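Retro notes (design track)

What went well: tokenization of the new backbones is finally stable.
What didn't: we kept losing track of which sequence belonged to which structure.
Fix going forward: every design gets posted as structure first, then sequence, in one message. First example under the new rule, 101 residues:
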């Protein structure tokens, strides 16, 4: 679903608009820090982290679904993040989070 004015692509699943705002890789990186490895801090480099974390905290009911969808996303699209994480790593992290929840 693209907005014709901004050309923003929103994920086409429940809560997808929120995950689009947060960023799939940011979401995984932050939850990985919270639930798997507290020393992981890639998410901390993003200037808009406070607003993204606030949205994450209000979206807990979507976590499992989002993580499942992220596991099916294209590595190429996940590679486009600015956190220094490649798509395969993001998917492995998402799986580790799913196991920890």
């Amino acid at each position: 679903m693209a907005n014709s004015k901004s050309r923003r692509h929103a994920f086409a699943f429940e809560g997808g608009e929120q995950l689009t705002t947060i960023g799939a890789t940011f979401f995984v990186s932050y939850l990985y820090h919270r639930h798997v490895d507290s020393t992981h801090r890639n998410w901390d480099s993003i200037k808009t982290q406070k607003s993204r974390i606030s949205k994450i905290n209000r979206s807990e009911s979507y976590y499992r679904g989002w993580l499942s969808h992220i596991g099916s996303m294209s590595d190429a699209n996940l590679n486009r993040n600015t956190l220094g994480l490649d798509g395969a790593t993001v998917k492995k992290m998402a799986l580790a989070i799913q196991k920890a929840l």
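Added context from the reviewer: The helical segments are 16-22, 24-35, 49-57, 63-71, 75-78, 87-100.
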